Amino acid sequence: MRCNAPHFCYIGMKQKSTAIQYVVYLLSKRDYGEAELRQKLKQKDFLEEEIEQAIVKAQEHQWQSDERFCRQFIHYRSQQGYGPNRLKQELRFKGIADWLISQEMENSEVDWFELAERVFEKKRSTNWDIKAKQKMWRYMVSHGFYSDHFSHLMDLDYDDYQ
Question: Which residues lie in coiled coils (predicted)?
């Protein structure tokens, strides 16, 4: 095999992509927050200067936006049955600023009380004794709901509805 550009013709070796190419590749799969993108670029051993340039270019072209990422994340995870407390924790872990999380949580159209009720009814045991209530309480809190979202449901006597 003959090659006109010898520095690209190493057998078994791949040409290293640029930071911006890698960012575009990642963002073509799904949205990422800025902090997540930085972390992924660092794992690929890109220089800080390359990382900064790639992030700035992605944001200038509106390929990456923490606001859009946060909005989509809230919508997606709430549809999976997770409450606001859990989503706030996950977004903080992903490097999203607290002010942005608060802003997007306020602007979201999710009715947390209705969502909590749907999750509660889906998971509620047919045997509604004290153990079942304790288990349900732990489940709802672990899924990020505040007690005021579901505490009124704990007191209902479900035996009357059967």
Answer: 37-64
- The number of residues making up the chain comes to 162
C-beta of residue 110 within 8 angstroms of C-beta of residue 52:
no
What does pTM read for this prediction? Answer: 0.82
**End-to-end alpha carbon distance in the chain:** 77
Beta strand ranges found along 20-94 (DSSP E): none
Note the pLDDT of residue 8.
40
Distance CA 3, CA 29 (A): 33
Alpha-carbon distance of 87 to 18, in angstroms, equals: 33
> Taking CA 65 as the corner, what is the angle to CA 21 and CA 34, rounded to the nearest 5 degrees?
65
Q: Is 29 left (phi over 0), alpha (psi -120 to 50) or beta?
A: alpha
The model's pLDDT over 120-132, given as tens digits with 9 standing for 90+, comes to 999 988 888 899 9
Rounded Cα distance, 101 and 33, in Å: 12
* Contact in structure between 144 and 89 (CB atoms under 8 Å): yes
Give the pLDDT mean for 11-16.
51
